Inverse folding.
């Protein structure tokens, strides 16, 4: 058995609605992708925090185009 993020693996769709305008936010993907890109500029504490969250959850960044607002959502990994 393996723990996987259902969103990263296309097993399910997660509809995240913007709390301001109610429109469906765009899934920008798991936040670790962003960290890989920017981690040299981040304080060490922040990266280790995300690593810790990584074991059971995959943190996705959702973005609302209308409000230019983004939100991090913890997606629970499932066993396959
Ligand atoms: Zn994911
Ligand atoms: Zn919005």
């Amino acid at each position: 058995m393996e723990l996987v993020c259902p969103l990263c693996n296309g097993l399910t769709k997660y509809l995240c609605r913007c709390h301001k305008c109610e429109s469906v936010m765009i899934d920008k993907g798991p936040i670790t992708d962003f960290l890989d890109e920017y981690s040299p500029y981040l304080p060490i504490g922040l990266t280790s925090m995300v690593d810790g969250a990584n074991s059971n959850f995959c943190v996705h960044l959702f973005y609302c185009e209308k409000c230019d607002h983004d939100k991090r959502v913890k997606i629970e990994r499932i066993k396959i």
Notes: The chain is about 25% helix and 30% strand. The pocket of zinc ion (ligand 2) is lined by residues 18, 20-21, 23, 64, 66-67, 69 (CB under 6 Å). The first strand starts at residue 3 and ends at 4. The mean pLDDT is 80.
